[in-house]
UniProtKB/TrEMBL annotation:
Residues 40-342 form the Beta-lactamase-related domain. InterPro entries: AmpC-like, Beta-lactam-related, Beta-lactam/transpept-like, TAT_signal. PANTHER family: BETA-LACTAMASE-RELATED DOMAIN-CONTAINING PROTEIN, D-ALANYL-D-ALANINE-CARBOXYPEPTIDASE/ENDOPEPTIDASE AMPH. The keyword Disulfide bond does not apply. The chain crosses the membrane at residues 374-392, 413-429, 449-468. This is CubicO group peptidase (Beta-lactamase class C family).
Length: 479
């Protein structure tokens, strides 16, 4: 299972140095209508200003797909269309939740009974795990946490049964039901419950029970013989096609591959139209989210007009996605992109489409990615210049410090030493920003690539200066 680094980590690290403003909300410009022409104009301008390789969108209203289209190009250089397959990452959670609810609808699963009573083999070293209910898994209130689980080992497992075995040594961060914390493990356990109760493997279950009834013929879960085209990462303005970091596991928390058109069929269903997947069990749109504003794979928010809506984003290493359903108006929106940079365009576009649905005219999407990357490039260039200058002046530095006390020499070398330490400390700094979620170097070379390169250049520059000064100092003070 792949775990995306939440995008706020890279942005916060960059913003600390850049002090760049975030995108502004929709302006109070003259009223606009949510028409296909307005959507096309907005997305065409977005591609131009952001430089994103490709974006596809779908807009639904009640039981109809109002508009579905692609803009830009896919990972193979072909035009992006509404039928281009892309990864949607954590938007997958709503599918997994619905799979569980489908079994709850027939009485095969009890949402408010302990998982351990319904899933043989679900045991953990923490005895509190015996009290986790199925509903708590789907609401991220189980107490499971990335900080108390061996996420790399879990990600390396090849099937959900092995995932359960690896989970046995894990613990909880808090008592079940006492707090909210986003953790992908919740939905892998839920998927294993589906497999155990139903007998089919999870990808087959969702295909036969969800995708096929809804007509989502281009949608799959997990790697298939028809994978999506490679996505892109940006490095100082240059888009580089990259393979996704693949999971061994057919991840129930983030493994769905789909299209804008198929997402439209899904949004129609989530808004309460189309084939009835559930009869007696409330859907997310019909449910009270409760204290933590997350229910059945959807987050709950309130728009500027006071209208509540369901929303979720999906972030992987070369793809982004965002979706929303507004039960009160019957609108649904999904935005998929085949790129991942320091700024997630899909969520901004989603907000722009919702603004159009309110009769507002959204501001053009700002070129924040280019701004971040330009400043990072300037920081990297300045570090290189400082390294060259520091190395050339190292003889003069050594002559001035040759006869000073050792403590003063050490004190003068502290800034360079801090710069050298920046690179090895970098993953741990990111983990602090993302509340302890595990981060790997492979992940840091995907969407945060410009920041990672800048950190590496700054650290290397500091090492060059420190090494030059120490070499000159030793020559000035031979043993």
């Amino acid at each position: 299972m792949t775990h995306a680094i939440p995008r706020r980590a890279a942005v916060l690290l960059a913003a600390a140095a850049l002090l760049t403003a975030l995108p502004t909300p929709a302006s109070a410009a003259p009223a606009a209508a949510l028409t296909p022409e307005a959507v096309d104009e907005y997305l065409t301008e977005t591609i131009a200003t952001t430089g994103s390789p490709g974006i596809s969108v779908v807009v639904t209203h009640d039981d109809e797909i109002v508009h579905a289209a692609g803009y830009g190009h896919d990972g193979n250089g072909d035009p992006m269309t509404a039928d281009t397959r892309m990864r949607v990452a954590s938007l997958s959670k709503a599918f997994t939740a619905t799979a569980v609810l489908r079994l709850a609808d027939t009485g095969a699963v009890a949402l408010d009974e302990p998982v351990a009573d319904q899933l043989p083999g679900f045991t953990m070293s923490d005895p509190r795990a015996a009290d986790i209910t199925v509903r708590q898994l789907l609401d991220h209130t189980s107490g499971l946490s990335d900080t108390t689980l061996d996420m790399p080992a879990l990600s390396a497992t090849g099937d959900l049964a092995s995932y359960m075995d690896e989970l046995a040594d894990g613990g909880l961060a808090r008592d079940p039901g006492t707090g909210w914390e986003y953790c992908n493990a919740n939905f892998e356990i839920a998927a294993r419950l589906v497999e155990t109760v139903d007998g089919r493997d999870f990808p087959t279950f969702v295909r036969e029970e969800l995708f096929t009834p809804l007509g989502m013929t281009a949608t799959t879960l997990g790697d298939t013989t028809d994978p999506p085209a490679p996505g892109y990462n940006s490095l100082f303005g240059l888009w580089i096609p990259r393979d996704e970091i693949r999971a061994n596991l057919p991840s129930a928390s983030g493994g769905v591959v789909t299209t804008a058109t198929d997402m439209g069929r899904w949004l129609v269903n989530q808004a309460g139209h189309g084939p009835d997947l559930l009869t007696d069990t409330p859907t997310a749109a019909e449910s009270d989210p409760g204290e933590h504003a997350y229910r059945f794979g959807w987050g709950y928010q309130t728009g500027p007009d006071g209208e509540p809506y369901l929303v979720h984003s999906g972030n992987l290493f070369t793809y982004n996605a965002a979706a929303a359903v507004i039960p009160g108006t019957g609108h649904g929106f999904a935005v998929l992109s085949n790129d991942a940079g320091l700024v997630d365009v899909t969520y901004t576009v989603l907000n722009g489409l919702m603004a159009l649905s309110r009769g507002e005219r959204p501001d053009p999407v700002a070129a924040d990615r280019q701004t971040f990357e330009l400043v990072l490039a300037l920081v990297a260039a300045a570090a290189v210049a400082a390294a060259v200058t520091g190395a050339l002046r190292s003889r003069r530095w050594a002559s001035r410090h040759a006869h000073k006390p050792a403590w003063r020499i050490v004190a003068r070398l502290v800034p360079a030493a801090a710069g050298v330490a920046l690179l090895p400390a970098y993953p741990y700094l990111v983990e602090v920003l993302v509340n302890g979620r595990h981060v790997t170097w492979e992940q840091l070379t995907r969407f945060p690539l410009p920041l990672t390169v800048t950190v590496a250049v700054v650290s290397l520059a500091a090492a060059v200066v420190a090494a030059a000064r120490l070499t000159r100092l030793r020559a000035a003070n031979p043993a």
